[in-house]
Each structure stands twice: as structure tokens, then as C-alpha cells.
Amino acid sequence: MTQRHLSPFLLAAAVCVAAIGYADAAFAHAEAGQVSGFLSGFHHPISGLDHILAMVAVGLWGALLGPPALWVLPIIFPVAMAAGGMMGLLGIPLPAVEIGIAVSSIVFGLFILTDISVSLVIAIPLVMIFALFHGHAHGTELTPGADAVLYSAGFVIATGLLHAFGIGIGAVEKLPWGRTAVRALGGGVLLGGTYFLLGAVA
Amino acid sequence: MKRHGIGLFLTLAALSAPSMAQAHLVNSGVGPFYDGALHLILSPMDIVRLLALCLFAGAQGPASARSIVLSAPVAWFLAGLAALVFGATATFDIANAVTLLLIGAAIAADLKLPQKIATALAAAYAGFLGFQAGVALQPDNADWVALLGTTAVAGAIVLAATALIASATAFPLRVGCRVLGSWAAAVGLLSIGWIIAMAK
Predict the structure, then answer these.
(1) Chain B neighbors of A62, CB-CB under 8 A
(2) Domain count along chain B
(3) Which residues 68-87 in chain B show a CB within 8 A of chain A?
(4) What is the pLDDT of residues A9-38, one digit of tens each?
């Protein structure tokens, strides 16, 4: 039997992202006066557990689906999220954003838990639609600051690193017990999403 | 492959902890050349745009990357010199956002162009960035030596990063470059929205 090893790069990525995520206390929203700058943008996506859950779930799901979804989803998501953010910034409404965000975790969690093989034709539009909700929520919460580009860079990089974190965790699916562990995490994502959905509709 | 992976990751880590942008020329105390060099080093978004250029160049393959590495610093310097000589003043926010979106989309889509077209586009983008460097140096009455300092740093970054990216042939690293391209495109798109929202 061939012995499979985790990629050192993925492990290093997972450890670094975990360290970054652990570095600071979470805030629900960007504070007034601190919106400019890279770090403020970086903190925004990691300031809400509902966002974190869905972002990490995208990485987990990609890892379970394997190539090409493994890399296509993290490429698609930031661009679609930015489009949603742009809509939010321009005041273009999107209905039931909070519900959409919670449902994203439920759907991603369900796919991970059941380990159903999904074609890219379904996965890509699904991820794009949910990314719009996440981006829109961020876009409407942002107070335009002095340095739009740096803020956006921090914002996008934090999102991408959360995907990488999910992919890093998902890499354990190569181990004998790994796939079951990842599916169990999907169950956790599903539960978390349900909790947020209840909060959103309450 | 491990070296490339570590290199890419260090680049990412460096991007994650940038310094504050400096609007004015830094007085290094060792002359205008180093003042110009420091000016670019302390401008994180200029570095990000340069890295986007490097990702584009590296993704085009070694032949195109080589010609881009040679042409980009020349275009940077000439365009910067034109800005200094003609005293150009302008703001480039929307142009920066749109070009970042386009170059990021090209990288994310793994768009392969003929060598001449890729080189011309990359040189045009480097020229655009160099022109901005020239405009930024004007308020401090900087001369061509300071511009040469920015050009040297830009050239060094383009050379090192493009070489690293062009030589990273392993599939995960190519994918990593495309993901970074999608990040650049997303930053460009968000910035466009932000700029329009600010203008309202």
C-alpha cells in the first residue's frame, strides 16, 4: 500500500493561518475610524463566525471534491465575493443577506457531511451565489476609508487565507481516517449554519 | 518545489504585514537614489501592483518572462522620466483599480498571450506604474536619480519574483499563482466599487 503524506506546504499554510486567526480578539464590525488600512480590512472577514465557518467550509468542500474543484472554487469565490461587496458599496440591495450567509454554511456543511460528488457545473454557481451574499454583507458594513485598495487587499487576503485554512484541514482526507474526520467537520459546519439561520430568522 | 512553496509563502506573509504607505519621499540620509528606492519599498500597494505584474509575467512562460524582465524597468524609468519632465499631475485611483482587475483576471484565467503582446502589455503596465512614481516624486522636487532608485527596486522585484514564478512549474504552485491573481482581481473590483461609492 502506498504511504500518503500531507504536503508540507499545506501544513505550513494551515499552521500560519491558524496563528493569524488566533492573533486577535474578534469584533463584530469594523470600528469607526479604523477602517482604513490593510489590517482593518484583514480583520473584517475574520470578525464574524458565520463568515469564517462558510469560508473554511469552501476550502473543506474543495478538498473533498478534489481537483479541479480544489483550486477552481478558491479562485472563483474571492471575485464573486468582491462583486457582492461592490453591490453592497453601491447600495444595490440583495434580499435576505443574513439568511443567505447562514444557508451557505448549511449547504456547504451538508455537501461535506454527505460527501456527495458534485459536478463543477453545480458547485461553481452555488459558490458564486453564496459568495455574493458574503460580499454584500461586508460591502454594506464597510465605511469608506482613506485607503480603499489596502483595505480591499486585507479583506480579500483574509478571505483567501480562510479558504487555504479549510483546504489545509481538508488535506487530512488523504489519511485513512481523514475523510471521515472531514465529513464530521462538515456536520459541525451544518450545525453552525443552522444556529446562525435560527438567529437570522428569529 | 519546496523552495518555491516556501518562497511563495514568504511573499504572502510579507504581504500580510505591510508597512504604512508613505505619501512623500523618505529622507534616507544617503542621497536621492536611496530616497527613491525607499519610497517604493515603503509603498505597499505599489509593491502589490508590481507583484501582480510579476505573476502575469511568470504565468506567460520563460520566454515572455525574460523579455518582460528586461522591458519593464526600462518602461518604468522612461514613463517616470516623462512625468518628471512634463510635470504631470493626476490621480490614478480608478485606473489603478481597473488595471488591477484586468491583470488579476488574466492571471486567474491563466491567459496565455503571444510573447510580443504579453511583453507590450506588461511594459505598458510597468510604464503606467513608473509614470505614477514620477508623479509621486514631483512634490518633493526629486530628480531623475530618485526615479532611478525606484526603478532599481522595481527592476529587482520584477527580476526576482518573475524568475521565481516562471520557474515554479509544479501544478500546485501554478494554481497558487492563479489564486493570487483572483485575489488581485477581487481587490480591483472592490476598489472600483469603493471609489464609485466615495464619489457619490
Answers:
(1) none
(2) 1
(3) none
(4) 555 565 555 544 444 433 333 434 444 577
Which DSSP helix (H) or strand (E) runs through A74? helix A69-89
What does the mean pLDDT of chain A come to?
Answer: 80
Peptide bond into A67 cis (omega under 30): no
Q: Would you call A78 and B183 a contact, using CB atoms and an 8 Å cutoff? A: yes
Distance of residue B4 Cα from the nearest chain A Cα, in angstroms: 10
> CA torsion B191→A28→A98→A190, rounded to 10°?
110
Does residue B7 lie within any of the structural domains? no
**Structural domain boundaries in chain A:** 34-201
- Chain A residues within an 8 Å CB radius of B2: 8-9
Interchain contact B196–A (C-beta under 8 A) = yes
Q: Is A37 on the interface with B (CB under 8 A)?
A: yes
**Shortest CA gap A9–chain B (Å):** 6
Task: Write down the mean pLDDT value for chain B.
Answer: 83
Percent of chain B with pLDDT over 90: 44
CB contact under 8 A, B187 and A160: no
Neighbours of A95 (CB within 10 A): 7
Angle between helices B44-59 and B32-41 (to 10 degrees): 80
Domain presence at residue B17 = no
A6 touches chain B (CB under 8 A): no
Residue type at position A140: T
Q: Is B77 a domain residue?
A: yes
Q: Which residue has the cell 496563528?
A: A19
* Single-letter amino acid, residue B34: Y
Chain A residue closest to B12 (CA)?
A157
Asked if B18 and A155 come within 8 Å (Cβ–Cβ), the reply is no
| Residue B28: inside a domain | no
**Is residue A196 predicted with pLDDT exceeding 50?**
yes
For the record, the C-alpha cell of A148 comes out as 480603499
Per-residue pLDDT at A145: 57
Instruction: Quote the minimal CA–CA distance from B80 to chain A in Å.
Output: 22
A31 DSSP assignment? P
Domain that holds residue B43: 33-199
- Check if the beta carbon of residue B40 is closer than 8 Å to that of residue B154: yes
Three-state secondary structure call for residue B91: coil
